[in-house]
Amino acid sequence: MSDAALVSLVTALADDELVLGHRHSEWTGFAPHLEEDVAFSSIAQDEIGHAAAYYSLVANLTDDDPDRLALGREPAEYRNAIFCERPNREWAFTLVRHWLYDTADALRLEALEQSAHPELAALATKIRREERYHLIHADSWIKRVARGPVEGRTRLADATASAFPETIGLFEPFEDEEAAVKHGWLPVPSDELRRRFYDKVNPMLDELGLPTETHPHAAARAEFVASSSGDLISEGSGETSDAEGADDALGGRRGRHTPDLDALWTEMTTQYRSHPGARW
Amino acid sequence: MEVYEVFRRTGHKEPFEHCGAVIAPDPEMALLMAKECFLRRREGQHLWVARRSDIHSFSDESLLEIAADKSYRFAEGYRDVVAKRERARARVKELAES
C-alpha cells in the first residue's frame, strides 16, 4: 500500500529533526545566557515539532503510530545523518552545527516545496516558515562570534573544522532515492542539494575566516572540491584526526550509526521504554 | 552586552506595552531574544526593543509627586459648582432685599 521510497525519504527527514532537536534540547538550563537558553530551547521544540509532523505523515502512509516511529524503533532503524547525532561538545560546536544544518535544511525545504506529493509539499512550506527564523538566529550568532574576540573566533574555527566535513552525511542519498526522484517526491536529488549547499556555504565560511576544508577521502567520494580559507584554521585541525571523522560521517541514511546515537537513544527513549503504551 | 527594554502589542490597534527586558549585544540580537522570551506563545503581534540607556527619566522621582491641592485640574473638583452658584444667587437676592 505504501510507497517505500516516500516512507524512507520522510523518515530520514523526521529523524534528522528529532535527533538534532534532542541534541539542542540538552542545552536547556545550560546555554551561555538566560535569553539564549529560552531561545535555543524553543528552537529545539520547533525541530521536534517538525519531526512530529513528518512522523505523522509517515504514520498515515504506513498505518503506524507517530510516537512509535519517534521513540519505539531501535537505533539501527533511524535514518538521520551522523552529523545530527554528534554530542554538543561546546557552544561553538553546537552553534556551527545549528548554522550548517539549518542552511542545508533551508535548501532541502525549498526543493521539497515542489514535491509531487502534495502533503509533503505543504508540510515543507509550513516548516520553512519557522526555519527562516532559525536561520536568522544561527546567522546572527555565527557572524557575531566570528567577528568577535579572539577566543570565540578560535573556538568557532576549531568547531567548524570538525563539524564541516561531517555535513557530507546530510547529503548521503536516501534509501530508494532514485524512485523518490523519479516520482517527483524528492524534486532535487541529494547530489544536487549537496552542490547547492557547498556553493552557498563555502563563500560564507571564507568571508567569515572559517575553515572550509573537508577530508580528501570524503571529498573524493562526494565529488566536490573543497576550498580553503587561510587565516583561522587551527593547527593540526586535521588530516589525521579528521580522516576517521569524515569516513564516519556517512552511513546514517542506511542505519549505520555511531555509539553517539546509542547514548542519545538510550536517554531519549527512556520514558517510552519504561512505560509501554503510556498516554498523556 | 547591554540591557534592552522590550515592548509588545497584542493587536494593531493596541498600544505597545512594556513587557520585560533582555540582555543582548545589539538591537538585532535583542529582537531575536525578545521574540523567544516574550512572543513565543503568541502573546502579541509586534515587538519593539530599545536600549535601556536610550530611555530617559527624572533622576529625582520626588519631582513627579503632586504636593499641593490640584483638585481644580479634575472634573471632580467642580462637582459642587451648581450648589455654590445657588448659594451665591440666594445671597445676592438677600442683599438686594435688605
Describe the structure.
The complex is a heterodimer of chains A (280) and B (98). In chain A, 65% of the residues lie in helices and 0% in strands. Chain A is built from 13 helices and no strands. Chain A has one domain: Ferritin, core subunit, four-helix bundle (Ferritin, Up-down Bundle). Chain A has 280 residues and is mainly alpha-helical. Chain B has 98 residues and is α+β, with helices and mostly antiparallel strands. Chain B is elongated and about 85 Å long. The model of chain B has no long low-confidence stretch (mean pLDDT 92).
Which labels suit this protein?
heterodimer; A: 280 residues; mainly alpha; Ferritin; B: 98 residues; Ubiquitin-like (UB roll); three-stranded antiparallel sheet; elongated
Could you give the topology of this structure?
The complex is a heterodimer of chains A (280) and B (98).
Chain A: H1 4-25, H2 34-62, H3 66-71, H4 82-85, H5 91-112, H6 118-146, H7 150-163, H8 177-182, H9 190-208, H10 216-222, H11 239-248, H12 259-268, H13 270-274
Chain B: E1 2-9, E2 17-24, H1 27-38, E3 46-51, H2 81-97
